[in-house]
Write the structure tokens for this entry.
Amino acid sequence: METSSEQAKDTQRLEAFSDGVFAIAITLLVLEIRVPHPEEGETLTRALLHEWPSYFGFVLSFVVIGIIWLNHHTMFKDISRSDHSLQILNLLVLLSVSFVPFPTAVLAENLKNDDGRLAATLLYGGTFTVMALIFNAIWLYASVGRRLLHEHVTQVRIQTRTRRSALGPIFYGGSLPLALISPWIAIGIYTVLALLYLIPLNE
Amino acid sequence: METSSEQAKDTQRLEAFSDGVFAIAITLLVLEIRVPHPEEGETLTRALLHEWPSYFGFVLSFVVIGIIWLNHHTMFKDISRSDHSLQILNLLVLLSVSFVPFPTAVLAENLKNDDGRLAATLLYGGTFTVMALIFNAIWLYASVGRRLLHEHVTQVRIQTRTRRSALGPIFYGGSLPLALISPWIAIGIYTVLALLYLIPLNE
Amino acid sequence: METSSEQAKDTQRLEAFSDGVFAIAITLLVLEIRVPHPEEGETLTRALLHEWPSYFGFVLSFVVIGIIWLNHHTMFKDISRSDHSLQILNLLVLLSVSFVPFPTAVLAENLKNDDGRLAATLLYGGTFTVMALIFNAIWLYASVGRRLLHEHVTQVRIQTRTRRSALGPIFYGGSLPLALISPWIAIGIYTVLALLYLIPLNE
Amino acid sequence: METSSEQAKDTQRLEAFSDGVFAIAITLLVLEIRVPHPEEGETLTRALLHEWPSYFGFVLSFVVIGIIWLNHHTMFKDISRSDHSLQILNLLVLLSVSFVPFPTAVLAENLKNDDGRLAATLLYGGTFTVMALIFNAIWLYASVGRRLLHEHVTQVRIQTRTRRSALGPIFYGGSLPLALISPWIAIGIYTVLALLYLIPLNE
């Protein structure tokens, strides 16, 4: 009983800390949007509209981090205990999450720029690929041999989650070679993935 | 019993994450206020006073986010469970909340500027209109057919909350056409709404 | 029973939100310290040392916010319930806390500057005076007639807390006219107050 | 019973506040990485690669703060109560944690710069030395005479933690004179320490 309650507290503080990092990273994204200073003869409206890549990047990264948070959230409902390796893997996923404002800012600043668009897209997609890979590593580490799972988690649920988790690296990783054909394909994939998620599905 | 406690935890982590985003967005507002660098012959006092639109924007946005937080807080006392759609709607309201520092900075920088004041006001009021609309969507989604409500929530309380929630879109949305006559009317409405809320009413 | 547990949760979320704002405001202070860019012939060491007012402001504001957080923390141990007025007063104290990074940056930038030092000190001390006044208002509102207090709080404890809370406005408010004689007197008072608090006393 | 539950709540809010500061400090690190603006004839890829010291500093400081958080986390599992001195010591460790983004930015900006590298390394290593010293002070204060420890903490566990805590000041403090020979030695030590920690050990 004592052990079980101590472990519960353990996952709880890890989750609370993770929530903190997710919440901060998602809210810091807004700092990437610069207050526009209209040039001679330009209206503020025009200057604001001119910054559409910043709004796009803000919304896209917000939704992706939000999705990762939700997945993190539901995944940890199935995980009953933590150990050193889980803590480290979780720290690495938080590292990639807290990095997101940087590639977002780079993408926003180079989306309209033919020279930098490809590099910015690869940095952006690459960040999400790494994040998705670490996310998978957490799940595999916790679920293989039911190492850290709650007893009530069914085998079917494990398989479903394993399959769904694999989609992240496949789509984000797969977008990278496609970006070489055209960065817009990759950006289109990220947008569609985010929109798909927003559609309510049966849980 | 198990299901109920699991669901309780569910809303709890959603609320904790939301609190985090609210707390960060409200505290990031201060970054919008620039440290003044007095020009030749100008005193620091004068330079500080010169920045009044930044203080005004800071306080106004702080109070509005604070109000939204309080409403979010009391609304979720009536909501017992969450599902995917509620999570998504909540994510969208957090998206609008975390965006607030940007229109606040734009408004503060253009309040004294005849050319940009209208666009800045529309951006500012528009952000709050969208936020209020999503906020209503959360409540309607949770309350219609008592989908996600606690059993102890009375029908009268549902109706009161539905009516009160509708005031946000009406006032913020209604301010937008009035801003076309003069941005100061809209800004006056936002100020009065914030002040009204600060007055203690019977709960 | 139900009401009591619901109210407990109420204060809990208010405290959690407040903790969030305190934690963010205290951590944002570091953004005020600029990375120095040594001028021609200047070493980085010298450029770093040259920024001492930024370190001083960082540490001083950190300690003051830390103290306010600790006081907030212990005060809310005595408060059992919240109502609209308490929420609003608490929001106002958070408003003043989240504002602190701005006067801190202004003070740091003007501490070595004879022209701006007085105005910067008055802004800094004025912010803490307002914060201390609102803090007192919270306590008086909660404690007069034992409006929102736990039953177990003794009359002696109420009086002690009332007396101790009054020290904030007295010292911070009293520093302001003294700053007119010399800003260094006021800055000395803030420093001594912070140091005094760090000394462990009987609880 | 009442006292015990009150004290539990006490440590809990201290831990929650600390988690907040850790989470924010660790996430603010990303703000140190500047969006590159390629010069004439330079590609974005090259400009991005050119910023490697910023990525290095980001990852290194992220891992170190993450480690400190984990240690803080496990240490407080053994601490059952808090008092004023513990609160103050904890505040001081948070002060050093929240300071980290500054030496990280200074190091990142001077790592490629022969003139500033030593001073930047000393500032960076010095910050971690101070942090490790305060961290030790917390543990010694709590553990000497079992002042604030849970009853279930064994004597062996106390000794293990005391020995392990002492490693921080030894390695970080010891790196400082070595930096005088070459800053790269100190930077190598910080890197190896971070990597060592990431390797899963028996708990």
Summary: Chain C is about 75% helix and 0% strand. Residues 1-7 of chain C have pLDDT under 50 and may be disordered. Residues 2-28 of chain C form the longest helix (27 residues). Chain C touches chain A at residues 24 (CB under 8 Å).
